[in-house]
């Protein structure tokens, strides 16, 4: 057996060990997608809360959008 054949055999063995699992890839994709979606959703909840607080304070008269004259 030549050196090239040994090298090819080793490469084939490594490729066989590094087998790609479709189920794992789908699972990883779902996990990353759900995690990113959750972060995005929480961000939007926080932004909506800030807007609701602003309009509640505006309605209650605690703040105003009119610039005071000096």
TrEMBL record:
Entry's localization field: Membrane; Mitochondrion
Primary location: membrane
Top-rank taxon, per record: Eukaryota
Keywords for this protein: Membrane, Mitochondrion, Transmembrane, Transmembrane helix
Recorded GO CC terms: membrane; mitochondrion
Entry-linked InterPro entries: COX5C
Summary of the function given for this chain in its UniProt record: This protein is one of the nuclear-coded polypeptide chains of cytochrome c oxidase, the terminal oxidase in mitochondrial electron transport.
PANTHER family given in the database record: CYTOCHROME C OXIDASE SUBUNIT 5C-2-RELATED (PTHR34372:SF2)
Family: Belongs to the cytochrome c oxidase subunit 5C family.
Name by which UniProt lists this protein: Cytochrome c oxidase subunit 5C
């Amino acid at each position: 057996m030549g050196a090239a054949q040994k090298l090819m055999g080793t490469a084939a063995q490594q490729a066989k060990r590094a087998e790609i699992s479709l189920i794992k890839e789908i699972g990883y994709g779902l996990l990353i997608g759900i995690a990113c979606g959750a972060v995005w959703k929480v961000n939007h909840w926080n932004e909506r809360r800030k807007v609701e607080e602003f309009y509640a304070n505006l309605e209650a008269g605690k703040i105003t959008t009119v610039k005071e004259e000096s």
